[in-house]
Amino acid sequence: MRVWIDQDLCTGDGLCVDHCPDVFVQLEDGIAYVAEVGVPLNDPGGSGSLAIVPERHVRAVVEAAEVCPGECIFIELDPAAVAGERLDEAAA
User: Fold this and answer.
1) Given strand 32-36, what is the order of strands in its sheet?
2) pTM for the full predicted model
3) What structural domains does the chain harbor?
């Protein structure tokens, strides 16, 4: 799973940071950004803003996206993982 934030929509509430401080950070401008291995990715709107989410943080990232008042957190699922889940469901 990968995640990015549309900084134009971010309201600066910091709820994402509260939910998952290992993936989201709030910089001096008051806007949230994604981080990878503790390094903020601040290429707004560019491919440099797409962070890979470690498996242990997937649930927290999804919850952060759900509660975000600016609806600015976007999640991209790995196509291989989605295909694997469908195969698991079909086998059950």
Assistant:
1) 24-26, 32-36, 39-41
2) 0.80
3) 2-91 (3.30.70.20)
